[in-house]
Amino acid sequence: MTDRLPHEKGFHVSWDQIHRDARALAWRLDGKGPDDGGWRAVVAITRGGMAPAMIVSRELDIRVVDTISVKSYNHQAQTQPRVIKAPQADIMGDQGEGVLVVDDLVDTGKTLELVRKLYPKAHFATVYAKPEGRGMVDTYITEVSQDTWIFFPWDMALQYVEPYRGRD
Ligand SMILES: O=P(O)(O)OC[C@H]1O[C@H](OP(=O)(O)OP(=O)(O)O)[C@H](O)[C@@H]1O
Ligand SMILES: O=c1[nH]c(=O)c2nc[nH]c2[nH]1
Ligand SMILES: [Mg+2]
After folding, report:
1. Is residue 47 exposed (0-12), middle (13-18) or buried (19+ Cβ within 10 Å)?
2. Could you report the predicted ipTM of this complex, rounded to two decimals?
């Protein structure tokens, strides 16, 4: 199945902005882990969750970091999400309790829905959230409208633009 999504708006995020927002996410998560000793590990949903997960794990001083690879999109067209690589079983434990699963954003929620089914007791955190998928995430920082496409700094490059009054 491939759906073309109507994205009216663009939300362009700089490296500085994602750094600030991921740090804010870490601070919000601090002390929210299970009572018996806090977060055991961070698991990034690749690839978009890797930069936020690095920042969160650095802020919270968590050294056990793993990845789960879920592929959901071809450019802006959504496809059925599938797990390409799972995290280490001993890190996740039985149901993921005490593990922070981090992604850059939740959109329709299909990616998190899949990971939640695998690890129902993990805590799911994203930097950005859209309304449709918000219910799938436990903690996030900034919400944008459903018709917004978020452009991350790793998908962009600086380039020249014409001055506003210089265009014919
Ligand atoms: O809530 P959903 O509608 O499932 O969409 C959100 C997911 O889509 C993007 O990942 P993508 O599958 O494009 O892979 P990438 O992280 O490697 O870019 C994004 O990084 C989230 O993981
Ligand atoms: O870079 C991205 N921006 C988005 O808004 C989005 N939604 C799903 N997947 C996405 N990837
Ligand atoms: Mg992703």
Report:
1. middle
2. 0.98
